[in-house]
Write a structure and sequence with these properties.
Peptidase C39 domain-containing protein; globular; alpha+beta; 241 residues; single chain; Cathepsin B, Chain A
Length: 241
Amino acid sequence: MEPKLAIPIAAQPDDTTCGPTCLQAIYRYYGDDMALDSVIHEVKTLPGGGTLAAYLGCHALARGYAARLYTFDLTVFDSTWFDGAHVDLAAKLKKQRQYKKSRRLTSTTEACLEFLEMGGVIRFEDLTAGLIRAILKRDRPILAGLSATYLYRTARERDESGTLVYDDVRGEPAGHFVVISGYDTERRSTHIADPLLPNPISQSQYYEVTLNHLVCAVMLGIITCDANLLVLSPKKRGRPK
């Protein structure tokens, strides 16, 4: 039987707190009942709002979890850094930072360096059904950073007085975090726990999307500094620190 994990996810309080809300849902899944307000307050954020998967991982590492980040972002990581030979990712990121000065890359680099320094692991693998199933079969939910615009097939978005509104002409692609909680082999679909309520796919926070659609949504997350999967594991039985 394919795994389907029970993820008790709350509704995100605003447009920029999907990441901490997903993180808190995974904490609750592991019996770690940290209040959502506290998670939101403690997770590092970007100047324009929102956060990065690496910062979510840092928060979990500080609470005693092990954290593994699967990245598909070639704007930050070079594929040759993962070719089997031992490569010092932190050294590569620091060297790259000397030549590439964009605000986006600088922010992502700082987050990834902190993640690595705290003991996080970064991997670069094909995003396949096999990878997703292998993680879920270990009873590990997957925190996915992806393109909301593609996931929902909605218009792009823009900020209007602090609120995101759809605008197919002036808008930009939007990023999002969800939790992958299961996989159906026969239907070739994935079970999603979504912090956005309501959302353009369902009036519920729990729904299915095809594997192909999910893979495209994750890969297109590269546009919004996403395109990753974060997997957390308690280091010891019982409640983490």
